[in-house]
Amino acid sequence: MTPTPPTKAQLRAFPEQFARSARFSRGRPHSISVADDGRRVLFLRSASGTDAAPRLWLYETGPDAERPLTGAGITAYTADARARRVVVALPGGTLAALDTGTPGPPRPLPGIRDAKAPRLSPGGERLAFVRDGALHVVRRPGGEGAVLCLVAPEGPDVTYGLPDLVARGEIGREEGYWWAPDGTTLLVARTDESGVARRWLGDPAHPERPPRALRYPAAGTANAVTSLHLVAADGGGVRRVALPGRADEGHPEAPWHAPAFEYLTAAGWDAHGPWASVQTRDQRTVRTLALDPADGSARTLAEEHDPYWVSLLPGAPLRTDAGTLVTARVLRDGTRGLAAGTATTPEGLQVREVLGARGEEVLLRASTDPTEVHVWAWTPGTAPTRLSGPGPGVYEGAAGGPTLVLDGLGPEGRTVRVTGRAGGAAAMGGMAVTDHVDGTAVTDHVDGTAVTDGRRGAGGAVESRTAVLRSLEEIPLVLPRPRHLRLGARALRSTLYLPSWHTPGTPLPVLLSPYAGHGLGLVVRARTWWAAVAQWFAEHGFAVLITDGRGTPGRGAPWEYAIHGDRLTAALADQADALRAAADAYPDLDPGRVGIRGWSYGGYLAAAAVLRHPETFHAAVAGAAPSDRALYNTHWEERFLGDPAVLPEGYRASSLLDDAPRLRRPLLLVHGLADENVSPAHMLRLSAALLAAGRPHEVLPLSGAGHGVAGTPVAAALLRHEVRWLGAALGVAVEDRPGERQEAGRPLPTGEARQGGQ
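Now predict its structure.
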């Protein structure tokens, strides 16, 4: 269905809606967890699409399937395996307990403040949390249990139970401790950041406030040192896990955090015991180990090598009920798949995440085309079964027992379904279709939209129960009107957004709006926030083109390896190729007026575009751009460029600083001055290099803003500033407010643009 064109009032109101809704993320069910018996589903959801204070909800079957358990203002929650006992985190680090089977408000836990990472044991008999770097435990949370400190830090830069910046932000390891299934012992990460360089973040708008210290390991510098420990939950002692290094490296007795294996990438404790995965500093080897809880010794379960880097797959490794180890594997054709013993997922099914295992069945998120991500079930040795759909979209999932929650964002919006599954994957009911993964037939059992009662249907088949959790997200005032394209020799996945009012034969300036970096694809068949923003820019008079080039996920390992050693050349070439192919297919696209905007890697790409290819790109807005790759962190940057002391040429080739003298197009640099991820130093160094080279440009500092500005008034003001700035740079008359109209800039001759900045 083609959306109705937006009115002028809707266009004017869109930036505020975008900001109030935090990019249309508020009001949706999130942080979903399912009890291991499938009887209860817990989730957070705020009262509306503009409410920032979520409350905890419970879904159970029955007439009152959804009911709130708390008031507003919950920041996080933890539950036991049956989702009966729950502890919620409140602002300020206080905690409160509740029982999902007993009515009444949460009961505050006395004596607990500044608590971080609270986590109930699987049986719910104990609660652990971190305070001041020490791991604490409470017996009988919600009762009269006393707080017991299990292990305390030995210095100010040591913490127990929390991941460091690199583990949390780049590796994806959010946890720092893991409960044993019986709740008697914990596997705990100790993190020592004393050797990590400090950065200081201050707010120039408030010079009276002292700066904050941030431990940030830039490429080539020292990382945090992480070790593992087994800790008795009753305070009975701490035992270090001494994992062996590689004997062929001369460290037969070395702990795993020796240079051979510097990163703890994942860990856990399942029915077969504790385990851990570790990765070498060069990221080319990942080893998965089984740990002995009695003596702390380790043995190797699997080891994966890659000449470029071993990709870390969220949710992997894991072990099935029978103990089969499931790990990530690059298949013969380059597909990123899974291996379980001798069995692998089929070639062409690109696995994005492992959601868990039920018995021997593995639930995962994967795609046969990069523009869609679905939830699948795979039992090793059989064909995968697709569980989400039937339409296109990007799906996430959570499961427990026979219950599966499918959170799908499609072209028309979001639907969150709770489906009870009886008798295995094939009992999903609804509709069965067939997909093909590179010649291998796989069955797609897609849940129906009708709600059934779980009784036997025709032919004796057991039907499933499907219910919908309400999603209260704001519907964008400007609805996307994407044209999905495959462009050029590499079939680059792209979306094109034209103004709803456009008349064929009328030239339009082109605005590229990519991310195009590793790990994130923007070209998907779903109503995303960035699609709505792209349409908003289009309605102001631009043809907006978004392209996922080499380095983005969903097209296999070789596609991603194209950026190894050089962060820019392939990515820029793909944006230029997509632009040319789109202009050939749509003659109204004016290649003589081309702008590009982006944030983070997208901002880096935008600045590089006008610096290195001014013949193609005529103006750029570069937000939070990491212009000097040597300033970025170890794990992310060394994955692509290696050690800067050994391979400096890759860092120099990927830096924008030496390109500063080449600028001859309008360039706007935008950066939050409180950005902990991409330091404002990136923007300041690039601006200084441009100034030293005599190249005019503009700088827009955002006081108090971090790496993202979603949910703040800055988001609305920034959108308006960008569209006005780009309109002036590319000769577009942009209407700003009722009764006001910006003067249109002179249309640019083909292949030319105005010199310098504004």
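Confidence is low (pLDDT under 50) at residues 246-258, 422-436, 438-463, 737-758.
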